[in-house]
Predict the 3D structure of the following.
Amino acid sequence: MVDLRANPFFLNDDQIRWVEETLASLDLEDKIGQMFCPIGGNTEEGFLKSFTEEFRPGAMLYRPMPAAEAQKVHAFLQKCSKVPMLFGANLESGGNGIAADGTYYARPMSVAASDNPENAYNLGAVAGREAAAVGCNWAFSPICDIDMNWRNPIENVRTFGSDKERVKNFTCEQLKGLRDNGVAAAVKHYPGDGVDERDQHLVPSVNSLSADEWSASYGEVWKAVVDAGTLSIMVGHILQPAWSKKLNPALEDKDILPASMSYELLTGLLRGELGYNGMLVTDATPMIGFNTPMKRCDAIPASINAGCDMILFNKDIREDYGFLRSAIKDGRVSMERVDEAVTRILAMKAAMKLPEAKADGSLFPGEDALSVISCAEHQELARRVADESVTLVKDTQGLLPVSPEKYKKVRLYLLEDRVGGGFKDGEGAIDKVKEKLEAEGFEVSLYDYTKPDFFEMFEGGVEDIKSKFDLAIYVACIDTASNQSVRRIDWVHLMAADAPWFVNDVPAMFISLANPYHLVDAPMVKTFINAYTPTETVVDQVIDKIMGRSEFKGVNPVDPFCGIWGAEF
């Protein structure tokens, strides 16, 4: 059932022999281990040795850590493993997805706003070079979702926007950049996020398009991904009811399942209709979207039977291994299906030339490889994409450019998450804005969220505000993050005290360093800028542009007006 000579594996005779001989050498516990990608945390070598001996994982993923430490951990695990391992990382925005000191290149929507496919290639190349330098060989990217719904709280700036052609083309360019630098991709999130306004971390979400609508949008993107030869695809806990029922008309609505455990969407649509022959890995299985459709003891084997070859992350790893082991022993999962899944995993490793690297001693890099981490070339590429992507959405009041001569006193409002949670990578950049504005000669007063000004709130009027500042600048970093229901402005709950009620008396400017859709909550602001990526490099570019030293070059990759009447004025 697996064509090892065909796309995406293209294996030669020697590689096929390695796959077949390795499969034959594995016992049941080895095969079960190959089908899991646990998340790593502990980096102590004694623990890692005993962990690999017990669980024999085919892959692992660590959250970002210092590059030298990541390299050391990956190298040790490769030494401990009988079969070369895949080491995954969320390389969505650059090398910072695996190395804490790596290059934060740009969010995909920044790249899309530049409208330059070369920047999409560089996104893959920068991430690939830095990942390879620390021994990471598997990118959980590109994200090829289409940002159709501005209310979606998890995709947003993680996507290449709402235009399917740009999404398709930029995804394939990012794939090339990764591949050319020795890193395989797991494109995500099949069958496509961005239609629902919910997060699959919290609930099984729904791609509610009709079968024809899906085929004319997401289907075209996924077909391009398949044809481009991606070695693996990450499967979301996302339902696509129209295609599920088209392929299985007898299926009742209550029995429709997320793609991660849907035979119709994986074996029927992805492998059948789209012709995908590569390896399928689930999205993270601790997500609620995976755990609520059925008992976990049934969901793990159901996912394998549906067509997934590897399970990403665990709740209780011994328990999860036991769920699959029991399903194999009682016949709910056949050995034929196990061998098919493991064959695809081994074929992926063979296509990446991991066995040859293990044989010649090049499976993991040396310390000298770390020189590429956050190197000057990568930083310059990040600066270039920032320059090309910052987007002037509107300036209907003719405010720009600004200067201390025109607007000496600035009131600065920093809108950011005031509740913890999620994995955010933009914290810190917003705090640089005040000092950078002051360095330009502005007198900046920061709105103090810890000590509300009750006089200003309840008694002060127009003259009070005008006496305090000449210009209000709102800078938002309400970043996309998992496990949150909305990514909206949460004004101070008492009288919305920080909202720009004064826009007709004192000019205001809004700069978003992340979510591009804030005009839905602040349509009254007449000068609005989207910057998409919360880094200091981007902040520098924004300030250059509002001061008139650099032109705005970005294009809108989505509708920043959210279809709201009045937001464009």
Summary: The chain has 21 helices and 17 strands.
